Amino acid sequence: MSRIGRMPITLPKGVTFEQKGSAITVKGSKGSLTQTFHPHMSVQLDDGVLSVKRASESREDRALHGLTRALLNNMVIGVSDGFKKILRIEGVGYRAAVNGKRLELSVGYSHPVYFDPPADVAFEVEDRSKTIIITGIDKQVVGEISAQIRKKRPPEPYKGKGIRYDGEYVRRKAGKAGKV
């Protein structure tokens, strides 16, 4: 039995769960998320605790058991607390700004780079235009948009300039040796 799939999910106060066929909707204070799961997986609600059961012991069902539970748990956490990714900008002249809802990056190109946030995602810029905070209710969307932002100028190993995740360690290389 899947160790992750067996774990129960407790619904926090204010979070509601609704199931129509294989589509599950979770609503909370931050918003609502809907996702369709495999029909072999069944989700049951007992006294504010969700549990995921599988139909058989086939290889596919065993793989889907933990996945379904993890996705459902991410939905519950997203609508109650939300998710956040923090990006740091390193480099002279590199900066970020929020104009309306749109994120504007100046990261060494001849033109600014713009990012429009998807639904339920918000950008914040702090620490003198060097920290970007991406918040949202869908963990997958928040991770994807932060990866797209980082991809515009990933950190380079010689000077360390670029956009990196908070806490990311960039292994630095020595430059070329000077002439003797």
Helix content: 10-25%
Tally of distinct domains? 2
State the CATH topology of the largest domain: Outer Surface Protein A, domain 3
C-alpha geometry: elongated
Spatial arrangement of strands, main beta sheet: 11-12-7-13
Named CATH architecture of the largest domain: Alpha-Beta Complex
CATH superfamily of the largest domain, please? Ribosomal protein L6
Beta-strand proportion: 35-45%
- The first-level CATH class of the largest domain is given as Alpha Beta
Number of β-strand runs: 13
Radius of gyration: 21 Å
State the end-to-end CA separation: 65 Å
Q: Let me know the average pLDDT.
A: 92
Q: What low-confidence regions span 5 or more consecutive residues with pLDDT below 50?
A: none
Largest sheet at a glance?
4 strands, antiparallel
Task: Present the secondary structure layout.
Elements: H1 3-6, E1 9-10, E2 16-20, E3 23-27, E4 32-36, E5 41-46, E6 49-54, H2 59-80, E7 83-90, E8 95-99, E9 102-106, E10 113-115, E11 121-126, E12 131-136, H3 139-151, E13 162-165
